[in-house]
Amino acid sequence: MAGKTSASPRPRSGGEGSPATPRARTAVGKSSTGSAKSAAGKPAAAKAATTKAGSKPRTTTARTPARATAAKGASGRTAQSAGARSSNRAAATRPGRAVAPAPSRPSVPSRIGRGLGRGIGAVWRLLAKGVGSMVRTVGRSAVAARDLDAAHRRDGLALGLVALAVICAIGSWFHAAGPVGHVIDLSVATLFGAPGVILPALLLAGAVVLMRTQGDREHRTRRILGGLFLTLSVTGTFEVVHSASLHGAADSAQARRSAGGAAGWLLGRPLDAGVTAAPAVVLLVLLGIFGLLLLTGTAMRDVPAAIRDALGRIQGERREPDDDQAYDSYDDPYGTGDEFVDGDLADDYRVGGSVALDENVDLAATTRLRRPSKRRQAADAEHTAAILPAFEPVTAPLPAAGPVLPTDDAQPTEVLPARLRPRVIKPAVEETPAPASVAEPTQLTLDTAIDGTYQLPPTSILKLGAPPKLQTAANNEVIERISRVLAEFKIDAAVTGFTRGPTVTRYEVEVGPGVKVEAITRLTRNIAYAVASEHVRLLAPIPGKSAVGIEVPNIDREMVRLGDVLAAPESRKDQHPLVIGLGKDVEGGFVTANLAKTPHLLVAGATGSGKSSFVNSMLVSLLQRASPAEVRMVLIDPKMVELTPYEGIPHLITPIITNPKKAAAALAWLVEEMEQRYTDMLAHGVRHVDDFNKKVRSGQITAPPGSERVYRPYPYILGIIDELADLMMTAPRDVEDAIVRITQKARAAGIHLVLATQRPSVDVVTGLIKTNVPSRLAFATSSLTDSRVILDQPGAEKLSGMGDGLYLPMGVRNAIRIQGAYVSDEEIAEVVAFAKTQAEPEYAENVTVPKPDPSKNVDPDIGGDLDELIEAINLVVTSQLGSTSMLQRKLRVGFAKAGRLMDLMETRGIVGPSEGSKAREVLVKTDELDSILMTLTGGTEGVPDEI
Ligand SMILES: Nc1ncnc2c1ncn2[C@@H]1O[C@H](COP(=O)(O)OP(=O)(O)OP(=O)(O)O)[C@@H](O)[C@H]1O
């Protein structure tokens, strides 16, 4: 684990200079008892023995277990037995001293002997002290060296490798490095045989990798194993081939140096002897392939995609977002159901930790949306500038509203910085297809016309943070303080390690045998007091470990930048467009979330907790990774300020919604879109929108003959509500209904919701909403109750704010503590500006227009006739003619129905009573029509378009 550090605290906590450890105190108690017992048989001497043993021996016994603790490390049993042993020793000597007769005056030689003994003892103590202090100094320097910047440590190592490579090369290739070079040459040849000649090149390559990458402890073992297997394979093959060509094994040391060396001999020889040369070579080649896979972290199934990818990169080709192959290798995770069945799968969400989401989803093979290399981007930008003079700088004053973006008919008046220029400048919006027929189901207006030419923003926009620290002086200080508390309360427990995250460090405390874990949890307040932080959180135990976790905020906290999270190899490997960067966990692993799998997320936290920062990170992640053809969004921002920077991004289905009533209408629209998608999927026998899209792309699904519809892949839709409370205050029933309907079924239709609130009370996050929104992200809450509302467990009230969060993905029992990723306003502005240069938003119609709900507030006497009644009122009022036969004719209804509609109008004061064969009097004017219809439909008519 990246941040996992095996602490040296135990020696420190129990060492000299620190207060006596609990174990030491336990040992002191035993010592006294032991003395008393030993003396029991000799009452006369007992008192003297106890008194004499009072001072000096106590110090000794107090120290002895402490040293035992330092030497043995973790086990309480070890410490105790050491304590017991020393007590026994003390007990054994004290009675002896106590009952000894008063010594007669010693003889001269014995006095000399004793003096000599004292002198030697003094010298010995002095020596021991000197050596001890030297060891401590070296130890302190080692710890200080660990505080060195990781990048510097890696650079130092890399330069060391370069030096070794140079000496090796001069020694092996030119035989000219003097005696040292000769020894190195001989050693390399002895170890690796003939293949050893490439060692200098490998060392250089290693140095370059060290200098260009960040440390990755997680994969170190895999890589070392891979390298080992590869070495054994190559040298073994040399050994086998060499001995086959000589018709016998290379037996002399000289001959072995020309073959596979000691390494080759180790595996090649037994294989050759056991299965003969040819099969041995096959086995060794297979081992080599395995080694290569391990070294590169590639699974066999990913090899074709990796080769395609590499070839594509060599040829400089870029797959277009709408490429038919996009997602071809993406197995639908939804149809088969999720894997998240156990709380212990929390690790699946840590990408820095090696597991990147669901192993079943072969997203790595998906090669879509890869960005061209920086060199290529630069070349393209130059090319673009050359062929499009309109993109050259102009001296016109900048418009106040920011850059005017290049479109077909608008000339740019401002030039974006070179690094932000799009690679290809094409018409922002492609020609839209013919509108769908009104009579048949439409795909609403979410056609995916924005496609091929869309370029994702360059990753260079997002800044990278400083490399993480593994241990600092602050950590050592906290260990001291925790140890002190444990000692003061006489708890037989010790800090045995810790893992430092960006915001908090989790200190691991192991308790001695027979000590209740509650003994530590009861001390939460005392520990909080000792470390001077009110945000101490205890995990008893740490999931999967026999240790209690004490999470203490770092006073030297580190910022996690979104750029780092998205640049993590595992995040890049997962090409799903709905993957967002969340942050880092306590162990320093990067955490991402796939919104398609959450599948709906509730985010809550008090003001200032980092909720808005999360929403920004989420949106920027999406803009960085997804084109509008893949992901469209409905942004609802009743607070009117939070999401404003994103106004005008091409991913929007409708302008950012700030009016709660319109927000309710937009949610209803999402429900309709969902139903529409279900209808399409049902008609073609597919269970998930991914399958539908795949079939549309491959041409397996086309619109029925004669239809005016054109099937296009459905983009994912993300509905983001930044302040659910405001919506729930305005239209609780509508909003809750819509959210529940969407969250219950929209997952398979590719529609997902993210609901954020700073007021996680039960009237905002209702039971129904909670049941249907399975994934939760809690930032610091103001109360335990709020924490329970969001997470169904305490913990969020102990968070320290500023992005410190608890993530509880669907199906996971234990929340993962994360430090949310941060993205600055400048980065947001640049990413948004770039996205806007690529395309203009294509807004769908009527998203925010409230639809009349026939079942809502309709008088019982109208029943199912509401639509016809509305039409009838329209006819009668606009023509000012209360004629039943006119209704019969125009509405194509029978006499009875027309008469009933007329009676309904009479009871509502729209027309007067029947006057025989004459037309009825119309009692309302045309300009009152809207308000009448509004009353009739229960208030859903007549909402103004703009707020
Ligand atoms: N992930 C983070 N990393 C570093 N600092 C952060 C992070 N998230 C938030 N902060 C800091 O905390 C401050 C408040 O964060 P933010 O505005 O996101 O809180 P909020 O919960 O949305 O509050 P409000 O609801 O009042 O807007 C920010 O100005 C920023 O300085």
TrEMBL record:
It is a multi-pass membrane protein. The keyword Transferase does not apply. It comes from the Bacteria. Keywords: ATP-binding, Cell cycle, Cell division, Cell membrane, Chromosome partition, DNA-binding, Membrane, Nucleotide-binding, Transmembrane, Transmembrane helix. It holds the Pfam family FtsK_SpoIIIE. One of its GO terms (molecular function) is ATP binding. SMART domains: AAA, Ftsk_gamma. GO terms for cellular component: plasma membrane. Residues 322-331 have a biased composition (Acidic residues). One of its GO terms (biological process) is chromosome segregation. Residues 29-113 have a biased composition (Low complexity). Residues 1-113, 314-333 are annotated as: Disordered. It is found in: Cell membrane. The chain crosses the membrane at residues 156-176, 188-211, 275-295. The keyword Lyase does not apply. ATP binds at G605, A606, T607, G608, S609, G610, K611, S612. Residues 588-788 form the FtsK domain. Homohexamer. Forms a ring that surrounds DNA. PANTHER family: DNA TRANSLOCASE FTSK (PTHR22683:SF41), SPORULATION PROTEIN RELATED (PTHR22683). Belongs to the FtsK/SpoIIIE/SftA family. Essential cell division protein that coordinates cell division and chromosome segregation. The N-terminus is involved in assembly of the cell-division machinery. The C-terminus functions as a DNA motor that moves dsDNA in an ATP-dependent manner towards the dif recombination site, which is located within the replication terminus region. Required for activation of the Xer recombinase, allowing activation of chromosome unlinking by recombination. This is DNA segregation ATPase FtsK/SpoIIIE, S-DNA-T family. It comes from Nakamurella panacisegetis. The lineage of its organism: Bacteria, Bacillati, Actinomycetota, Actinomycetes, Nakamurellales.
